[in-house]
Q: What sequence folds into this?
């Protein structure tokens, strides 16, 4: 177990004590009160509860309603989630709510082909029409994996223009892999206000990520964490559930993590997250879980992309591992199938390879996982959840 993990487990509840006052306002605007600890999201000035909602997998407005009424104010979605239905659901729910009572973040990926700037703007405008809002609080340039991509001028300039037009309050960048590189590029670029990054107890290069996050915070950027639970299940099978409270509390021990967006989809999962946020001091049982799980190969792909250079067929292995995680970690088969379908793979991606030479740094059995998850391509949507 790394030094970072040992230090985190030694921290007491004082890690969140400075934030434990329940706010009645965020950036000077009145909000419902919350008993959760609150941290300031960098130079945005937003004072947000440490627990937010990643809405990606949610399709039940009642869960969003309960989250909102429980004091959660920050809701994270994206242009591509559920083929747009996710943004539409949020737009409908918040249509009659005071605009200063919640924070909305949405995300747009780098478009393919030419006219990148125009396509990026068009995707954003589509999101705005679904959300039925005059502006979003945070617009993320989504799923960035390199410094070069983070500073792509057509997209950065388009985002700055949208901010100047008042359609966006703050600009952000989201990253699932090569996080330190992307974070440092975002700091240097100067256009971004918020970083949305993977952050959980099973990350192998945690010290490097912590250092990059610290540099970002010192530069005034807000830090939003995702994947803190590393999947609600550690692998396929009904008895592989991860301890979500332990994962959330572990991440909150780092005061640089301003808020987390777990993807809860049920009332029970919401209740677990709220219970964790109400008291972030880790129990002995939770510490034992982190210690036992920190070096185990869970479902989350580290995004190092070393595997791509080893694969003779140059398969998009990280994306396939992400689909595997969605299916077995989050039990989101429809989402997993959509990822597989977008990859446009052959019917038997590994079929004509006599021996796989890919050695996963996370210990994944690549061939077995690819064969397993690729089967979803042939399952009718009506049979999936």
A:
């Amino acid at each position: 177990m790394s030094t970072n993990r040992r230090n985190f487990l030694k921290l007491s509840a004082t890690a969140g004590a400075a934030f434990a006052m329940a706010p009645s306002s965020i950036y000077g605007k009145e909000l419902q009160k919350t008993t959760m600890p609150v941290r300031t999201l960098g130079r945005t000035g937003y004072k947000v509860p440490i627990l937010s909602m990643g809405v990606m997998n949610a399709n039940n407005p009642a869960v969003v309603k309960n989250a909102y009424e429980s004091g959660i104010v920050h809701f994270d979605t994206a242009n591509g989630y559920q083929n747009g239905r996710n943004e539409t659901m949020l737009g409908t729910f918040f249509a009659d709510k005071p605009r200063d009572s919640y924070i909305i973040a949405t995300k747009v990926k780098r478009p393919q082909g030419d006219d990148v700037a125009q396509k990026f703007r068009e995707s954003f405008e589509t999101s705005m029409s679904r959300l039925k809002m005059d502006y979003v609080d945070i617009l993320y340039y989504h799923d960035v994996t390199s410094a070069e991509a983070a500073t792509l001028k057509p997209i950065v300039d388009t985002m700055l223009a949208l901010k100047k037009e008042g359609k966006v309050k703050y600009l952000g960048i989201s990253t699932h892999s090569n996080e330190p590189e992307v974070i440092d590029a975002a700091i240097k670029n100067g256009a971004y206000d918020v970083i949305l990054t993977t952050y959980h107890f099973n990350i192998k290069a945690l010290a490097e990520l912590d250092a990059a996050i610290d540099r970002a915070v010192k530069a005034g950027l807000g830090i939003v964490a995702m994947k803190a639970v590393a999947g609600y299940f550690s692998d396929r099978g009904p008895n592989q559930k991860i301890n979500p409270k332990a994962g959330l509390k572990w991440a909150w021990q780092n005061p640089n993590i301003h808020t987390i967006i777990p993807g809860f989809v049920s009332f029970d999962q919401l209740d677990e997250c709220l219970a964790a946020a109400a008291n972030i001091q880790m129990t002995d049982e939770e510490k034992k879980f982190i210690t036992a799980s920190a070096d185990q190969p869970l479902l989350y792909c580290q995004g190092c992309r070393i595997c791509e250079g080893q694969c003779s067929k140059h398969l998009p292995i990280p994306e396939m591992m992400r689909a595997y995680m969605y299916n077995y970690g989050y039990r989101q088969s429809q989402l997993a199938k959509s990822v597989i379908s977008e990859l446009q793979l052959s019917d038997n991606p590994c079929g004509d390879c006599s021996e796989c030479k890919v050695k996963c740094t996370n210990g994944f059995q690549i061939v077995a996982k690819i064969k397993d998850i690729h089967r979803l391509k042939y399952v009718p949507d009506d049979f999936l959840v």
Observations:
- The two ends are 36 Å apart (CA to CA).
